[in-house]
Amino acid sequence: MTRLQIGRATRWGVLFAALVILQVVFAPLLALWGVTPDFVLVGLLFLAALEGRLPAVLTGFSTGIVLDIAAGEVIGLSALAKTLAGFTAGFQFQPHLEGQRIRPVIFMLYAAGVSVLHNLIFLLSYFRSLNISLLSLLFSHCFGAALYHTFIAAIVLLIISRRKQGIAMEARP
Amino acid sequence: MQSLYRFLESLRDYLITSLLCVISLALIASSDAPQTQVLRGIAVGVFATLQTPTAWVVSFFRSREETSTLRTINMELLEEVMQLRCLRRENENLREMLGFRQRSLHPIIAAEIIGTPTLPGQKFYTLDAGTDRGIQVGLPVIHENGLVGKVFAASRGHSIVQSLLSKTFRVAAKIRRSRVDGIVSWESGPHLILRNVLKTADVAVGDTIVTSTFSNIFPSEIPIGSVLSIGPDETGNFNRIVVRPFVDFSRLEHVYVMQWSRHADADSLEMRLGVSRGPS
User: Fold this and answer.
1) A106 vs A89: CA distance, rounded Å
2) Taking CB atoms and an 8 Å cutoff, what residues of chain A touch B50?
3) Theoretical Cys-Cys bridge with A119: which of A142, B61, B125, B245, CB 3.0 to 4.6 Å?
4) For chain A, how big is the Rg over CA atoms in Å?
5) Partner-chain residue, chosen from A21, A65, A80, that has the shortest CB–CB distance to B21
6) Residue A36 distance to chain B (closest CA, Å)
7) Which fold does the domain A3-163 belong to in CATH?
């Protein structure tokens, strides 16, 4: 592992630590109709797009464990959901490209799909204990939440693209 | 061996993901283990420390929002209270009017005071009822508490009432208890004067003054006021009795015009005899 790679890993580590804190402390304040945004999931989408599948899977698992412990969830549930989310999001990574770029349309489609998958895992584990119909849960906490996450991802993408002067971003220095 | 290594290398992501999924499932299965609970307790403590300042910020903004909402509700309630107070006063007035109507022996016309024209030495009230409702000049005007005055002028939709607090107004009156007669007039201030009462007459502070049967405008026994003080007049032969009127003229809002007239035959008889009745 080169110094450059260590530096990149550290930056991502710090970013995800901040995202976990953001998720636990501030995300409940931004809940819309009971749907809480998942900043860690959005971060994973970017990590998968820029660094590849394996970093996304490992980060998804580790942040998932931390979130489970901190948020009082069933330990392993977020870890499982985020591991699979990172794995799925990693399909958009194209290792043969010299400079990894985010293709906005594909990225948004991945964001929506991965978010639906991520939410479905939670939904399937919880809907039995909740006194709400599956259809209602699907619309609010699966598709609704996916829309919310995609929206956040789009905003982040827009901000990054503005800073990088173009929608395509260099992943590797 | 190398080909196996390469094969495993190509499946690296899948294998690691599968392994992590298995670990996750194992953790889910052992979620209620005592060690896990201890770990969770520590994590909750750490994140709770982070959440404390943000909770204060959130509660601050929520309290501001709550204050704003409460202020709005307070304003709405104040307005409602004001409306209810108006309705209560109106209800009390109406009940009083209803009771008074039932007590009155003569037909009465209720009217609201819409103006108080001021003339030197005269106190008038403009009413929102006129000849179209049967009001004529000279009819007595009363209130629940007592005598107000008489109709001074009347048009189709309005009329003007001359009150007791006018220098030119006189009314034949008597002390209800002792039946002593006198004449009520006004000089100045909020009180009336009962004149022509002999110094030897039976009169005491607190006695009620009512209209007399001698009056040709007012029916008898309409309360006017109560005796406030007794003293000698300028001549020294009569008492000058200060009377506090029952009607608060400064707060009048509505009055009743009595459709009352003295017997016509008594008038014509008196006219034939050339008798003057003096005060009204």
Assistant:
1) 11
2) 21, 24-25
3) A142
4) 16
5) A80
6) 16
7) Arp2/3 complex 21 kDa subunit ARPC3 (1.10.1760)
- DSSP-derived letter for residue A90 is G
Residue whose tokens read 């009156």: B173
The CA–CA distances, whole Å, from A128 to A119, A124, B30 equal 15, 8, 19
- List CB contacts of B197: < 8 A, sequence separation 6 or more: B175, B180, B181, B182, B203, B238, B239, B241
pLDDT: is B122 or B103 the higher one?
Answer: B122
**pLDDT on residue B215:** 80
Residues of chain B neighbouring A70 (CB-CB closer than 8 A): 43-44, 46-47
Structure tokens at B12: 């690296």
Q: Give the CATH H-level superfamily of domain B108-273.
A: Rod shape-determining protein MreC, domain 1 (2.40.10.340)
Q: Which two tokens stand for residue B95?
A: 């009940």
Q: E-strand spans in B56-215? A: 108-115, 118-119, 122-127, 140-142, 147-154, 159-163, 171-175, 181-186, 192-198, 208-211
Predicted ipTM?
0.78
Q: What is the mean pLDDT of residues A24-42?
A: 79
Please judge whether A26 and B54 are an interchain contact, meaning their C-beta atoms are less than 8 angstroms apart.
Answer: yes
